[in-house]
C-alpha cells in the first residue's frame, strides 16, 4: 500500500496560513508542487478505479487544472477576505452532470487541512430546482429514504428555519426536508492521512456515504 501524503503537506499549509501572500507563495511554489499538488494528484489517479466502482457516473480527473483537484487560489471578487490562497488542499469526485448544473451536484469530497481534515459525500449548495427535486424524491420515496437513514449517517448542512413551502411542518421527515445541503463527513487525523492505509480508509468512507449519494442522484433522475 502506498503512502501519498506526508507531514510536509500540513507543514506547508500551516505556514501558508501565516504567510498568505503572493510573495511567500511564489518563493515556496516548489514546495507546494512537491508536497501538496503532486501527492494529491497521485491520490486522485489511484482512487479513480475505486470511485468508478462505486458509480461509473462519477468524474475522477487527476489534472492540474480543470480536474478533480481544487485550485489553491481563492476567488476574492465577492469576499471581504482578500487573502489570495486557500489554506487547505481538496478534491471532489462529482457526478458527470456537474457541467450542466449551476449549483452543487451529488458526489464525494476530500478536504486536507491542519486540524480539520475530512471526507465524505452528498450534495453542497444545490440550486433551487435541484433541491426541490431532491425534496420531492424524499416525499415520493419514503421507503427509499428510510433505508438511507437506517445506515446511521449523520446528515449535515444548513437548514431552513421553517418547513419548505408546501410541506407540512409535522411531516415525519421534516428535519431532513428543511436541509439546504445534504451531506455526511468523517473526520480524519493527520496520522491517518499520512499512513499507508489512507486510500482504503477514504474509499471505505465513500462507500459508507454511497447510499445517500445514490439516493440524491436517483431523485434527480440521473444515472448512478
Note the main attributes of this structure.
224 residues; alpha+beta; BirA Bifunctional Protein, domain 2; four-stranded antiparallel beta sheet; 42% helix
Concise structural overview:
This protein has about 220 residues and is an alpha+beta fold.
Give the helices and strands, then pairings:
Blueprint: H1 7-18, H2 22-27, H3 29-54, E1 89-94, E2 107-112, E3 117-123, H4 128-140, H5 142-149, H6 174-177, E4 182-188, H7 190-193, H8 198-219
Antiparallel strand pairs: 1-2, 2-3, 3-4
Helix pairs in contact: 3-8, 4-8
Strand content: 5-15%
Q: Which percent bin holds the helix content?
A: 40-55%
- Compute the CA-based radius of gyration: 19 Å
What distance separates the N and C termini? Answer: 29 Å
Going by helix content, strand content and strand pairing, the class is alpha+beta
Tally the helices: 8
Which ranges are low-confidence, i.e. pLDDT below 50, for 5 or more consecutive residues? none
Q: Outline, from the CA principal axes?
A: globular
Domain count: 1
Q: What is the class in the CATH system?
A: Alpha Beta
In CATH, the topology is named BirA Bifunctional Protein, domain 2
Average of per-residue pLDDT values: 97
Number of E-type strands: 4
Could you please describe the fold and organization of this structure?
With 224 residues, the chain is of the alpha+beta class. The chain is built from eight helices and four strands, in the order αααβββαααβαα. The protein has a four-stranded antiparallel sheet with strand order 1-2-3-4. It is globular.
Amino acid at each position: 500500500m502506498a503512502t501519498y501524503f506526508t507531514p510536509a503537506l500540513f507543514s506547508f499549509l500551516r505556514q501558508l496560513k501565516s504567510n498568505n501572500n503572493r510573495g511567500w507563495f511564489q518563493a515556496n511554489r516548489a514546495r507546494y508542487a512537491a508536497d501538496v499538488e503532486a501527492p494529491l494528484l497521485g491520490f486522485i489517479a489511484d482512487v479513480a478505479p475505486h470511485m468508478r466502482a462505486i458509480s461509473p457516473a462519477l468524474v475522477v480527473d487527476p489534472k492540474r487544472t480543470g480536474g478533480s483537484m481544487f485550485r489553491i487560489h481563492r476567488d476574492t471578487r465577492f469576499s471581504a477576505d482578500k487573502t489570495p490562497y486557500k489554506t487547505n488542499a481538496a478534491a471532489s469526485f462529482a457526478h458527470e452532470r456537474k457541467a450542466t448544473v449551476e449549483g452543487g451536484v451529488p458526489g464525494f469530497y476530500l478536504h486536507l487541512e491542519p486540524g480539520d481534515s475530512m471526507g465524505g459525500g452528498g450534495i453542497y449548495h444545490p440550486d433551487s430546482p435541484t433541491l426541490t427535486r431532491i425534496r420531492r424524491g424524499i416525499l415520493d420515496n419514503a421507503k427509499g429514504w428510510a433505508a438511507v437513514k437506517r445506515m446511521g449517517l449523520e446528515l449535515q448542512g444548513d437548514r431552513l428555519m421553517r418547513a419548505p413551502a408546501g410541506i407540512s411542518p409535522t411531516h415525519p421527515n421534516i428535519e431532513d426536508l428543511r436541509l439546504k445541503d445534504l451531506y455526511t463527513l468523517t473526520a480524519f487525523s493527520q496520522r491517518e492521512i499520512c499512513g499507508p492505509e489512507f486510500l482504503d480508509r477514504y474509499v471505505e468512507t465513500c462507500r459508507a456515504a454511497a447510499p445517500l449519494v445514490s439516493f440524491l442522484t436517483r431523485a434527480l433522475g440521473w444515472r448512478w
